[in-house]
Amino acid sequence: MDQNIEIEFKNLLTEKEYMDLFKGLNLKTQNIFSQENIYFDTINFDLKKKKLALRIRIKNTHAEITLKSPHKEHLLETNIAISLLEAQQIIKSNAYYTSDSIADILRSYGLDTNIPLKIFANLRTERIEQKNNNSIIVLDKNYYANQVDYELEVESSSAEEGNQLIDDLMKNYEIPKRKTPNKIMRAFNAIHSKDTEV
């Protein structure tokens, strides 16, 4: 298990803005990699109510369980590496086995860990990254609920540096600032709106 403070800044993009950044940063299509996020919650969305997010992320050769919890102005990520087989077993059973460490965190928020967790959203991302000093520039193309969106993220070890970098990128590429809910919220909202369509 490892824990880290997630300092990231993000902004939704149009397809053209995504392509302009891709070309302008001299990124290469062969460096794109794919990952799938499977999100869990109780049937009553008890984690969402506590501003918690629980997912399994599947990559080509491995997977990990991640719990995101509020931490000051950022998020605390608790990550546990699991095998692809373990990930598939969790997904196949449509239930979630909480490790002791994650269960402890859930209980610290007053959650009953005996309540079963279910899959409520899947999101696949085609991602490319570029290192920039103490930060990483990330371009994501996301697929969920029959939708596609594009996103710029800057992950940094310094809030000041990360904020400055994304501001500079958006200014240089004439990208307007947009309200950007995190991926789990976008997937949840897309699925919820489909569920309520008449």
UniProtKB/TrEMBL annotation:
Transmembrane segments: none
Taxonomy, superkingdom: Bacteria
Coiled coil: none
Cited SMART domains: CYTH (SM01118)
Residues covered by the CYTH domain: 4-194
Signal peptide: none
PROSITE patterns with a match to the protein in the record: CYTH
Protein name: Uncharacterized protein YjbK
Organism of derivation: Marinilactibacillus piezotolerans
Classification of source organism: Bacteria, Bacillati, Bacillota, Bacilli, Lactobacillales
